[in-house]
Amino acid sequence: MEQLSGQDASFVYLDTPTTPMHIGSVAIYDPSTAPGGFVRFKDILRHIESRLDRSRSFRQKLVRV
Question: What pTM did the predictor assign?
Answer without folding.
Answer: 0.54
